[in-house]
Amino acid sequence: MREADRRELAASSGDVEMAVLRGWLSSIFCFAGVDEAGRTLGVFGVFREDAHWWCPWLVGTDALEEYPRDVARLSVSLFPRLRERFPNMRNYVDSRNGKSIRWLARLGFSFSGPVPHGVAGLDFYMFWIGGENECVIR
User: Could you tell me the CATH superfamily of domain 3-129?
Assistant: First the structure.
């Protein structure tokens, strides 16, 4: 797991392994990316937060860092299809996790200012897509 993702999960939930397991088991949509050598690049999922909002998450590995252009191209090309299925998405990202923040911004997410979040009370940004933090019902 990338160190930035480990720090984010520890600050948010306190238990890194359980956070990944809960995300995996609660997601209606979830997959792992692997490279040609069979190394896991990351795990991505979306779970239902409430009647209108979905919660996207991604945990990357160090191997993911070897494919920045491929990840960017794939993300941008697949994201519109994901939005069709999950039009209203939101979650929190650790303010220290610059790569994730840039990736989310490239996909079109909006961000709040820093807010204390998680068990550590560190600064996180809420990110969302689907209106100005309001639901887009389709």
Answer: Gcn5-related N-acetyltransferase (GNAT) (3.40.630.30)
Cβ neighbours around 2 below 10 Å, total? 19
Measured in whole angstroms, the distance separating CA 89 from the mean position of its chain's CA atoms is 10
The residue behind tokens 């990316």 is 33
User: Per residue of the chain (138 residues), what is the pLDDT tens digit?
Assistant: 999 999 999 999 999 999 999 988 999 999 899 999 999 999 999 999 998 899 999 999 999 999 988 988 888 899 999 999 999 999 999 999 999 999 999 999 999 999 999 999 999 999 999 965 555 544
Half-sphere exposure for 79 (CA within 13 Å, toward CB): 17
Residue entry with tokens 């994730």: 100
